[in-house]
Design a protein that fits this description.
about 90 residues; mainly alpha; 4 helices; transmembrane helix; membrane; DUF8044
Length: about 90
């Protein structure tokens, strides 16, 4: 049973990644940052949709580290975009 749930998670995440790459390419909006953000959203959604109710398997507990790295990467992207938008006279350096 655990292998089936793990495969469902992997298949769901792969389907999300392929679909997001296809949609981004159809919209001519392919960029590393946008794909990263859409992939992080997909990881969070698939993680929540495939979560068991009672017991958390060990492999799911290890998902917190990639999620944490993804959130830190998202914060870096947001800060970079905000700094691009701000006029130069607002920045102290």
């Amino acid at each position: 049973m655990p292998t089936q749930r793990r495969q469902r998670f992997v298949h769901g995440l792969l389907a999300w990644l392929l679909a997001s790459a296809l949609v981004l390419s159809l919209l001519n909006s392919v960029s590393y940052e946008l794909f990263f953000v859409v992939s992080l959203i997909g990881l969070l959604i698939v993680t929540e949709l495939t979560a068991p109710f009672n017991v958390t398997p060990r492999w799911r507990r290890r998902l917190k580290w990639p999620i944490l790295v993804g959130i830190v990467g998202f914060a870096v992207i947001v800060v970079r975009r905000i700094l691009e938008i701000l006029p130069p006279e607002v920045l102290p350096w």
